TrEMBL record:
<keyword id="KW-0408">Iron</keyword>
<keyword id="KW-0560">Oxidoreductase</keyword>
<keyword id="KW-0503">Monooxygenase</keyword>
<feature type="binding site" description="axial binding residue">
    <location>
        <position position="114"/>
    </location>
    <ligand>
        <name>heme</name>
    </ligand>
</feature>
<dbReference type="GO" id="GO:0005506">
    <property type="term" value="F:iron ion binding"/>
</dbReference>
<dbReference type="InterPro" id="IPR036396">
    <property type="entry name" value="Cyt_P450_sf"/>
</dbReference>
<comment type="similarity">
    <text>Belongs to the cytochrome P450 family.</text>
</comment>
<feature type="compositionally biased region" description="Pro residues">
    <location>
        <begin position="19"/>
        <end position="28"/>
    </location>
</feature>
<dbReference type="InterPro" id="IPR001128">
    <property type="entry name" value="Cyt_P450"/>
</dbReference>
<keyword id="KW-0479">Metal-binding</keyword>
<dbReference type="GO" id="GO:0004497">
    <property type="term" value="F:monooxygenase activity"/>
</dbReference>
<dbReference type="GO" id="GO:0020037">
    <property type="term" value="F:heme binding"/>
</dbReference>
<protein>
    <recommendedName>
        <fullName>Cytochrome P450</fullName>
    </recommendedName>
</protein>
<keyword id="KW-0349">Heme</keyword>
<dbReference type="InterPro" id="IPR002401">
    <property type="entry name" value="Cyt_P450_E_grp-I"/>
</dbReference>
<dbReference type="GO" id="GO:0016705">
    <property type="term" value="F:oxidoreductase activity, acting on paired donors, with incorporation or reduction of molecular oxygen"/>
</dbReference>
<dbReference type="InterPro" id="IPR017972">
    <property type="entry name" value="Cyt_P450_CS"/>
</dbReference>
C-alpha cells in the first residue's frame, strides 16, 4: 500500500516553496513517534505526462505525485502501534530498507532510488561508531526533545544540545 499526495500544476504554482505537510494526528504525542523518516515525502516533482493509474488511483496527465513515506511508516494497517517507540520491532522482523520493501524505504525505491544509499548507510554507521568510541555523551539539563519540524527534510524542532566528553585525553 502506498500513500500518495497529488498536486495539479495550478496547486503547485500557489505552493511552490512549501511541500504538503504530512498529517500528524493531534492525539499523537509527537515526542514518542517511532519513525522519523529523514525524507518524509519521496519522489519529489515526478510529473505524469500521460493519464495513468497507480494501483487503484487514477492519475491525470500534468499531476505531480509524491510518495508519503511518513504516512506509510505511521499506518496502523502496516505497523502495529506505529507511534510507540519500539526499535526492537526491527529485530523481531527483519525489514529491508534499501528499496525492496515499501513498508520502510528511507532511500526511495525503483528507478529513482537514492544512488548514494550504500554510502549513506556506511558513513552513518561510521560516524556513529566514531562518535561513541571517542566521546562519552552526557545529558544536558535541556534533555532531548524529539518534536519534529518538516522542512524539505525532517528536522528536529529544537536543536539537540549534547555535551561530548573525550574518552581519551590528548
Ligand atoms: C542516509 C543518507 C541518505 C538518505 C536517507 C537519502 C535519501 C534519499 C531519498 C529519499 C531520495 C529520493 C528517492 C526518490 O525520489 O524516490 C534520494 C535521492 C538521491 N540521493 Fe540520497 N540519501 C542519502 C544519501 C545520499 C548520498 C551519500 C548521496 C550521494 C553521494 C545521495 C545522492 C542522491 C541522488 C543523486 C538522488 C537523486 C536520484 C534521482 O532522482 O534519480 N544520497 N536520496
Amino acid at each position: 500500500m502506498i500513500a500518495l499526495l497529488w498536486r495539479s500544476r495550478s496547486q503547485q504554482a500557489s505552493r511552490r516553496l512549501r511541500p504538503p505537510q504530512p498529517t500528524i494526528p493531534p492525539s499523537h504525542p509527537q515526542g514518542n513517534i517511532e519513525s522519523h523518516p529523514p525524507g518524509p515525502l519521496l519522489s519529489w516533482a515526478r510529473l505524469s505526462i500521460h493519464d495513468t493509474h497507480v494501483g487503484p488511483h487514477f492519475v491525470p496527465a500534468g499531476t505531480t505525485a509524491m510518495v508519503n513515506m511518513y504516512a506509510i511508516t505511521h499506518d496502523e494497517k502496516i505497523w502495529s502501534n506505529p507511534n510507540e517507540f519500539k526499535p526492537e520491532r526491527f529485530m523481531e522482523e527483519d525489514v529491508p530498507i534499501m528499496g525492496s520493501d515499501l513498508r520502510l524505504a528511507p532511500f526511495g525505491a525503483g528507478r529513482r532510488v537514492c544512488p548514494g544509499k550504500a554510502m549513506g548507510m556506511a558513513t552513518a554507521q561510521l560516524w556513529l561508531a566514531q562518535m561513541l568510541q571517542n566521546f562519552r555523551w552526557v545529558p544536558t539539563e535541556n534533555g532531548v526533545d524529539l518534536t519534529e519540524c518538516l522542512n524539505l527534510s525532517m528536522e528536529m524542532k529544537s536543536s539537540l544540545v549534547c555535551k561530548a566528553v573525550p574518552r581519551i585525553s590528548a
